[in-house]
Structures
1.
Amino acid sequence: MPTFGKIHYGWIVVGITCLVLLTSAGIRSTPGILMVPLENEFHWSRATIALAVSINLILYGCIGPFAAAVMERFGIRRSVLCALTLVGIGVASTSLMRTPLHLILMWGVLVGAGTGFLATVLSATIATRWFTARRGLVVGILSGGASTGQLLFLPVMANITAAYGWRATVLSIAAVVCVVLPLVALILPERPSDLGLMPYGETGEPKPAIAPKGNPVVLAFGALRYAVRERDFWLLAGTYFVCGASTNGLIGTHLIPACMDQGFSEVTGAALLATMGVFNFIGTTSSGWLSDKFDNRWLLFTYYAVRGLSLMYLPFSFTDYYTMTLFAMFYGLDWFATVSPTVRMLTDRFGREKAGMVYGWVFTAHQLGGASAAVFAGLMRENFGGYMEAFMFSGLLCLGAAVAALFIGGGRRPPEPAAPTAVTAAA
């Protein structure tokens, strides 16, 4: 593979990884668009549809640590190609479903398992493997790629659904996956040493990397046994549980149905999520830059506090599109902003070799929170006739997470590594 002159190939890897994460995020945000059309066609309850989404989120998160171990054992490229294939099959098969069990198997199991390999665990693995300097910024850029996927996919998918039906939407998504597959096969290498490079920010002669041997399941649980002895792991996992409950599970799944309950169209709800995507790209990239320079505990405190206040404002914003847009702007600024400080603290605390797998377990907590919120918000809507209680409770959880973040140790950044030389790591 070429080294692209003076540009460190790590930045090329960041670009192709962004494309993969963009596609995965667009796929994962689609259930919010499909929920009402499926409810209308099949007469399934919203809680039943949310159950499939919940299973998707659980698998998406629980596979994280094993995905990191598989990437270490068998390689990133092969893992990503297999995951994209699984997602494409699951999404395309959804167009043939007839029962809730089909939805659970196709969207819940197949898509959930495939996207679990294409989550922020992939971002953490790429950042720690290819970068020493600017690692926080890289995680911010990759996390921003996920928000860009939401930005690009949601309005397009909402309009396709409104014009041609939900089956056209899922088949269009499957076609996008088919385009991304060959790009990954041609462009994405395994490690810097494969190209004769050191990670960005390091100098010297690269040494061939030795992939860990053994069962990936054993490797993943070994990292968990090591991590659970540390209080910081539990604090980061707990705050990330709240992060998932207040993002994927609640807003990602239920914002569009909540807008429709208030008389707005699904296109309006998708536009709000796209607005969040724009501001999330700004906030997440900025968060990556800030995490390289400031105490990450206070960054997390700020992000969770702002998110909590935004969620408590949301029920009162359904008066017109402008007040709803105000919510989308403030909420969007820190949707994925928690990723960079969390990854940096985990890497500093547990080391580069274990960081991906430990982050996978923390991300499992994130998705368990998202799955819980997806189900309970649907139940609250059925019992109370609206989403007010779900939004307020989630806001209070975020304020609690903001306080808990201050008790995490090691939030302050370590000394920066030596600046990269012009030959090996210029960009």
Note: The radius of gyration is 20 Å.
2.
Amino acid sequence: MPVLLRPEGPAPTDLAPTRRGLAALAFGGYAAAAFSADAEPIHTDEQGLVTGMVEVPESGGALPAYVARPEAKGRYAAVIVVSEVFGLHEYIRDVCRRFAKLGYVAIAPAFFVRADPEGELAKTTDFGKIQKIVATASNAQVMGDVGATLDWLKSQPFVDKDRLAITGFCWGGAVVWMASARFPEIKAGVAWYGRLTHPPANGFLGGEQRPWPADVAGQLHAPVLGLYAGQDKGIPPSDIAAMRAALKAAGRSDEIIVYPEAQHGFHADYRETYDAKAAQDGWTRMLAHFRAHHAAPGAKRGLFG
């Protein structure tokens, strides 16, 4: 099972034996973890749902995305689900189905499809290859993809275009902060252990000259809830303190929750770092955050539940 203790993937110092033995030494993507003897990923059935791939129109072509939504007619609140570095794999699709069971339209775009048209991110055991693919997705490209996804959602008859949210994990957690500062139609965001400050210049994603969440704290349109891990080797307490300071300086009240004993990837149920207690608490807080900023008392069916 892959040891992913930091947003950019494992470093050599992470690869010490654990109680789960040599299986934990593999770099591996989603597939390598999900089919290991230790993995017990959650599976959400499709009963009462409409699920499948769609093509989101965007400049230069179409962006593939997985959608899960309630089968019943109506207009539903929508949430964009932004993946980890492993791309659009089964865990992310299942997260979408979990949302759909609660009455959301959930959509997960394939942000890395241009460099990874065959979905190798979810299959490869070469983390160097994963990093190269992920690095091709610039902030400008990703923001363009989020914008195209929002446009697609707003054009669908089953979406309440006034109730749009975003959540993301790992790499996707940073995207949540950036998109919440870019698009005023996003009403709430929840970032799961996403990078907050610029990576080292010689590190993964450090070469791109672009802003990071701490740089755009004063530009946020939507309230963002941050869910972070106290044992995350890639996001130290100093980064969280810097983000909190930036939010405070901007006069914002966005909350960052830190689970002291959790590790990076604590929501990913297919990974060794999965922490069921922290994951459930974070999920509950996320739903409450969406309710607080979207659904009025007595809201009609299909709004945030």
Note: Strands lie at 49-58, 61-70, 76-82, 105-109, 159-169, 186-192, 224-229, 255-259.
3.
Amino acid sequence: MSKKTIVGAALALPLALLLGACASGSSEPAASGDAASTETVKIGVVGAGDPYWETYKEAAAAEGIDVELVDFSEYTQPNPALSAGELDLNQFQHIIYLATYNVQADDDLVPIGATAIYPLGLYSSKYASPDEIPAGETVAVPNDESNQARGLLVLQSAGLIELKDGGSIFSTVADVLPESKVKVEALDAAFTATSLPDVAAAIINNDFVEDAGLSFDDAIAQDDPSDPNALPYVNIFAARADDADNPTYQKLVEIYQQTQDVLDGVQEASGNTAVLLTTPVDELTASLKSVEDDIRANQ
């Protein structure tokens, strides 16, 4: 199957409106208020300092689940930790990132619930709009495969670059055509923000926006999370395949999705950019498989 055909299949699914030890105790959720049967679940995240995580832990505790957050500084860490049994769940990535990890690591981690989708923004300390950026300037994008492609698509939509064959979820800096208005440099996702003094603009992942002293409102361009083609960018709770039906883990997804104080906290932490989701797991799983198949076909 051609690359375009497979990419189309990966993106054609509808968008629902919208990292030790394994968990101890029984596989059934513990009764609320029963301290003796409290179950501990380790969840790997990137950004445990966000206040809503404390709210989430309190809501889980009310259901007899002791959530232990394990904070990671790099996106490359939570999936191997989950696979190795150092975590029970993780919640930091979208479907494309998980698919890329599964294929490269020959792993089978799975999504067990959706959280939100976040627009990916272009920021600048020198220019107020993409139109103001002079030809020949340099723009930074994250160097991890999934976010690099997404960032390049944002730059193309903003009129700053042209991508080979119109671009796809697998585009890289090598696909930026010579006739593009600007040059593109790929940097570690944690460093695109700190590169702003040295470049015209940078694609900055949401986790690093406020740490860099920026506001989400400062974005001069971003993608559209309501696009039906955005399903592969839905953020998820991930588990080992054998734990996909674990009722405690499913309960933790439900707590996240249905606790208003948690949802309000997520929105506040995202600068009101998050589009909150309850996408059915079968749609998440189907999208993961499609993207994995596409990645393998293009290796």
Note: The two ends are 13 Å apart (CA to CA).
4.
Amino acid sequence: MEDKIVRATAANGGIRLIAVSVTESLKEAKERHKLSFLTTAILGRSFSAALLLASSMKIMHGRVTFRIRSDGPLKGLLVDAGRDGKVRGYVGNPNLELDLIKNKDGKFNFNFKEAVGTGYLNVIRDNGTGDPFTSTVELINGTIAEDLASYLLHSEQTPSVVFIGEKFQKSDVICSGGLLAQVLPKKETDPLLISLLEERCREMKSFSEELHGTNNLLSVIKKIFPDIDDLSISENARSQEIEFKCRCSRERSLGAMKMLDKKELRDILEKDKKAELVCEFCKEKYVITFDEIKAMIDS
């Protein structure tokens, strides 16, 4: 399944449904950051969460920063996602791996709670004009899905159900994505809609299996709401491509170097004869040469 976002509505426009697949983007991040199985799962879930949030922004250049600050061995994470479908991110400890834990069904799952620990989820929405909107909530359990639902309830007062999951096969991730179902703001006081949302979502047994079993995100949505409002959203607005894309560049690296004072630049020249800047989001390396640093000092 190619990476994309699919949008739909149900209950005569009273419920918004958004599904996202980030498998290929996550594979690239896994390769760039040398992620373990555990951190691959956590970063993939955070990709989905940030993109689900960004997808509801009205301005195409709008962006969402999804950050976890906590005391767990993961050492936090940061994801940057755009309304345009571009996503990038990193975790503090990419090599972290913990023993799997057995759930009530006898299946083994990643130990997200121990990895993330206790702390806070911080979300920044930036429309590109004025001050960004920032909100922070306490983490629930580090599974990302419940943490995102908690954020939506407490910070945006929007009743929501969130499914996020992934599936591995041997050493590779074969699917990763998420689904967000929300009662829209004008309808949030309707108890029947909230009950309908809860009832339908209880019928979803395993989101990861549903995601893996199809190459059509709309069919995943229809598993919950088979009676979606097909004509409520145009085809162009309904589907959008997703890709791992970093905004770093050599020009930005040069700009960062120019912010150093002359003493720091001279120290770099004397000790190393050059500078190497590595982007945290994508691990791209930029080499600033001796002559370029000397020109910065002279200017």
Note: The chain has two domains: 4-244, 250-298.
